[in-house]
Design brief:
The complex is a heterodimer of chains A (about 400) and B (about 280). Chain A is of the alpha+beta class. Helix content of chain A is about 55%, strand content about 20%. Chain A has a six-stranded mixed β-barrel. In chain B, strands 2-4-5-3-6 form a five-stranded mixed β-sheet. A two-stranded antiparallel sheet of chain B has the order 1-7. In chain B, a hairpin with a 7-residue loop joins strand 4 (about 45-50) and strand 5 (about 60-65). Classes of the chains: A alpha+beta (about 400), B alpha+beta (about 280). The interface between A and B is large, with 54 and 41 residues.
């Protein structure tokens, strides 16, 4: 009864309660967003890396995938050595290069092109047509749309430009075998995929490979396989998804720390807001509380009622803040995906139920703690003095 | 003027030699101060360098100097250590010959950068020429995104602050409803009560803004010191300028006036006889 009487006081001061709830909801939404941002890109990156089942990346010693022009020499032989490592299920070679689409005398913008083995490919999903054979090419969806290409069309591609003569060099005509949704492309990126042999032939990089994607056998620890590959093939670096995520984390340190700072500010604002509302509410009802104590109601019950009031404010604020936070996350994500080179499939805000529950739990706990302080003050105040003050 | 960039690896063996035994005929290399401290290396030491993209054996160079890298926000996320070579020395290390990443071009006084850029693009097929402003705009895409993100977070923060301030003002005014009723009953006009409440809100918001500016200054120092240590850079990540302080104070003032006016309206709109009711 005491608890419900205290909760009813929230309805008595409707305007004030609604404002407090709005404040808590915004703070909770900000905290939720910062919680999602703190790990969002890393988690999303990890999911994207493992989306195709190729969870390891093998690169030239000491560099990250496509971080430099460096390549693994004798790629075919290295692929065989990697495939022989225990726990390796499949090895997919990739060679990166730049091609230009040639139309008449002019060559267009550079197109990022990957040479792949169609039998073990992990960079795109076919949306139409089939995987490329010799002399064939897969075009990305945006390129197909913008250039009006479809399976069966022919395109002239140049692997090099002759700056002094002012024309494309090593131009060859390829048949479009399919249209692909490239997993790691940024929004609207124009790119191509063709057979490894075709890219090597066009660029003169005889046996080079930029990186390998490696799929491990079911139940095998990726990190252990990465270590074994590093030991068996010393001229390469093997990264597990976890290691690449850690590297991503390093590069996005700024966002993680910004999220921590803003999340902490949101928590402080919530605590201040709840504490202010409850403190003043308790202060206003000092006389009522003193009277309740005078007629024998235990201090513990009064304290419980005050804490419940704080919990209710924070809990309802959280409930309101949750959809608001998700809406804000969507808007902020759209802004942040404008970063140059960020794959369109990634998200800066990952929904991780455990972390979200923790963030909301923190807000509710803050509400309870914020209610404790004025509650304790009210039940510990000398009864006679409290009654006299109220009478005055 | 030409520039080229490539990732390089320091060979593990043999170890760097001292200046006394360094071969004066060896080509020179400039070493990033952070790399010099990490290895460690001094001017006159000999290092063996191999390009990650190269196929040859490591080539010896003598450390001709140590340089401090420019504080460039574009490179802060990767924060790689750098070496600087004479162009022919670097070219000898990498597989691609007669190739540069970019040229920096100084124009004659009065020359039009745009027409020069178009002429260069026409003369050198496949190249793109940018004026300084266009280059700055192209390379600042990342920071434009970050700036938009900060703006969005700023709007949320302002909204939360406005609600907080309004809440505080309403509570403060509600607390004194009986005093307000008394004032009204002894003849103090509505407008005087209204102004008093608004002035109080303005005072609170100005005091809050001053305290916020002080906290902001301290926080900016902590943030800059932290990131300077993390990235080993002289870049400043947080800036508190007089303009920013004034903008924040003006915003605080506007919020204070708004919150005060709303809170005051709640009081002056009620007849004084009813203000004292519980």
């Amino acid at each position: 009864m005491i608890v419900s009487a205290f909760l009813k006081s929230l309805f008595r001061r409707r305007g004030r309660t609604l404002l407090a709830l709005a404040g808590i909801a915004i703070s909770a939404a900000l905290l939720l967003d910062m919680t999602m941002l703190a790990s969002g890109l890393t988690v999303s990156f990890g999911e994207l890396l493992g989306a195709s089942g190729y969870t390891l990346r093998v690169t030239p010693k000491g560099i990250l995938p496509f971080d430099s022009d460096a390549a693994i020499e004798n790629g075919d032989q290295v692929a065989r050595r990697i495939a022989a490592v225990a726990g390796v299920r499949s090895v997919a070679p990739v060679l990166g290069a730049q091609f230009r689409m040639v139309r008449g005398d002019s060559a267009g913008e550079p197109l990022f092109t990957v040479g792949i083995d169609p039998a073990s490919e992990f960079l795109y999903r076919l949306t139409g047509g089939r995987h490329p054979g010799p002399g064939e090419v897969i075009v990305s969806v945006p390129l197909a749309n913008d250039a009006g290409l479809k399976p069966g069309d022919r395109v002239a591609l140049a692997g090099d430009l002759d700056v002094s003569l002012g024309r494309a060099r090593a131009t060859r005509t390829y048949r479009v075998s399919g249209v692909g949704d490239f997993l790691y492309n940024y929004a609207g990126e124009h790119s191509l995929a063709m057979t490894l042999a075709d890219v090597r032939a066009a660029t003169g990089r005889g046996s080079d490979v930029s990186l390998f994607g490696v799929a491990t056998a079911p139940g095998v620890d990726d990190a252990a396989v990465a270590k074994r590959i590093g030991a068996a093939v010393p001229e390469v670096s093997a990264y597990s998804t976890r290691e690449l995520m850690a590297e991503m984390d390093k590069r996005l340190l700024y966002f993680r720390q910004l999220a921590t700072i803003l999340g902490s500010v949101a928590m402080v604002v919530t605590a201040l807001l709840v504490a202010t509302i409850i403190t003043i509410g308790v202060r206003e009802r000092f006389g009522e509380i003193a009277t309740l104590r005078a007629i024998g109601v235990r201090g513990r019950r009064v304290l419980l009622a005050v804490v419940t009031e704080g919990l209710t404010l924070a809990g309802v604020g959280c409930l309101l803040g949750l959809p608001m936070g998700l809406w804000m996350a969507g808007r902020l994500d759209r802004i942040l995906l404008g970063f140059p080179g960020i794959p369109a499939r990634m998200t800066f805000f990952a929904w991780e139920p455990r972390r979200v529950a923790l963030a909301m739990g923190i807000v509710i706990a803050i509400g309870a703690i914020a209610g404790c302080i004025p509650g304790l003050g009210a039940v510990r105040a000398p009864l006679g003095q409290a009654l006299r003050e109220e009478a005055e | 003027m030409m520039a080229a960039a490539l990732a390089l690896a320091l060979a593990q063996a043999p170890p760097p030699q001292t200046a006394a035994v360094a071969d004066a005929r060896l080509p020179g290399v400039l070493i990033d101060r952070r790399l010099a401290e990490a290895v460690p290396l001094r001017v006159g030491d000999t290092v063996r360098v191999r390009a990650l993209a190269g196929r040859g054996a490591p080539v010896p160079f003598v450390v001709a100097g140590v340089f401090e890298r420019e504080a460039d926000p574009n490179r802060i996320s990767r924060n790689e250590m750098e070496l600087r070579f004479h162009l022919p020395d670097l070219e000898a290390l990498v597989p691609q010959k007669d190739r540069v990443d970019r040229f920096a071009v100084v124009l004659e006084p009065g020359a039009n950068p745009d027409s020069a850029a178009r002429w260069i693009e026409g003369a050198a097929f496949g190249t793109r020429a940018y004026g300084s402003a266009a280059l700055a705009s192209e390379s600042s895409a990342t920071f434009r995104v970050i700036s938009r993100f900060h703006d969005a977070i700023g709007i949320v923060t302002i909204l939360a602050s406005a609600i907080f301030l309004l809440c505080v003002m309403i509570i403060r005014v509600d607390e004194r409803r009986r005093d307000m009723a008394m004032l009204r009953l002894i003849g103090v006009s509505r407008s005087t009560v209204f102004r008093a409440v608004v002035l109080e809100a303005v005072a609170i918001s100005l005091a809050g803004s001053a305290a916020g500016a002080a906290v902001g200054l301290v926080a900016a120092r902590i943030v800059n010191a932290h990131y300077a240590a993390v990235y080993d850079t002289t870049l400043r990540f947080a800036l508190v300028t007089p303009r920013i302080v004034l903008t924040a104070a003006a915003l605080g003032l506007a919020l204070g006036v708004g919150a005060g006016a709303l809170a005051a309206w709640r009081v002056v709109a009620v007849p004084p006889q009813k203000l004292g009711e519980r």
